[in-house]
Amino acid sequence: MANEKQFKLNTKYIATRGVEEYRQTIEEWVKPYDKILEIGCEWGTTSNLIQKRCRNLIATDISPDCIERARLKYPKVRFETLDAFNIKTAMELGNDFTKIYIDMSGLSSYRSLLDVIALLTMYASIFEPEAIIVKSGSLKQFAKNSIAWNHQSLSRQ
Ligand SMILES: C[S@@+](CC[C@H](N)C(=O)[O-])C[C@H]1O[C@@H](n2cnc3c(N)ncnc32)[C@H](O)[C@@H]1O
Fold first, then answer.
1. Do residues 39 and 102 touch, judged by C-beta distance below 8 A?
2. Ligand 1 touching residue 61 (CB < 6 A)
3. Which entry of 29, 122, 123, 153 is 20 to 30 Å from 85 by CA?
4. 95-128 pLDDT, tens per residue?
5. Of 139, 137, 94, which Cα lies nearest the Cα of 119?
6. How confident is the model at residue 157 (pLDDT cuts 50, 70, 90)?
7. Which atom, in ligand 1's list, is nearest to the CA of 22?
8. pLDDT of 4 strictly over 70
9. Residue 74 gets which letter from DSSP?
10. How far, in Å, CA of 127 to CA of 97, rounded?
């Protein structure tokens, strides 16, 4: 159920399609002063690219096997196990993340759109980051077809 706080959130949602677009955002969105939480890091390829621009990164994945492999591959990055839906554990990792990167299996199909929006809203409400960058083709398509109504639009008619 929507509430007043949700409408006041300033977090921007950056929707990308495919891993290439997801990684392209790093150059524009990741700043050296950021504190970043990455969700769904798998073997750490994107984590390593983020870490090159910002040292304050916690990269996470639900799979302990992925985390073990990522730690061996990129020993300078901090990797932790996390199920994105376990928000209490996410909060134990910090409360001042400025950007959140999310690439979880299953978030791209059209059927997953509501799950994506619920996940983004939960992370935006709790952490109030400046931006959440998400790999989700369904969200990108939805965003492309959306227009935030603004009364001034009338003057264009
Ligand atoms: C496509 S891979 C991520 C690829 C990675 N971002 C990269 O750029 O190389 C998706 C990852 O989401 C993880 N995942 C799936 N469900 C998750 C959940 N509930 N919480 C956290 N990670 C999850 C999987 O274990 C998998 O490693």
1. yes
2. yes
3. 29
4. 999 999 999 998 878 789 999 999 999 999 999 9
5. 139
6. low
7. 8
8. no
9. -
10. 6
Model pTM above 0.85: yes
Report whether residue 86 contacts ligand 1, using a CB cutoff of 6 Å. Answer: no
What would the pLDDT profile of 34-67 be if each residue is shown by its tens digit?
Answer: 999 999 999 999 999 999 999 999 999 999 999 9
Classified as helix, coil or strand, 13 is strand
Cα separation, 75 vs 109, in Å, equals 33
The pair of three-digit structure tokens given for residue 147, joined into one six-digit string = 């227009």
Using a pLDDT cut of 90, give the percent of the chain over it: 84
Report which secondary-structure segment, H or E, holds 136: none
100-to-3, 11, 51, 127 alpha-carbon distances in Å: 22, 10, 13, 9
* 132 Cβ inside 6 Å of ligand 1: no
Could you give the CA distance from residue 124 to residue 130 in angstroms, rounded to a whole number? 9
Residue 150 CA to ligand 1 center (angstroms) comes to 37
| Cα–Cα distance measured from residue 118 to residue 1, given in angstroms and rounded to the nearest whole number | 11
The CA 32 to ligand 1 mean position distance, Å, reads 24
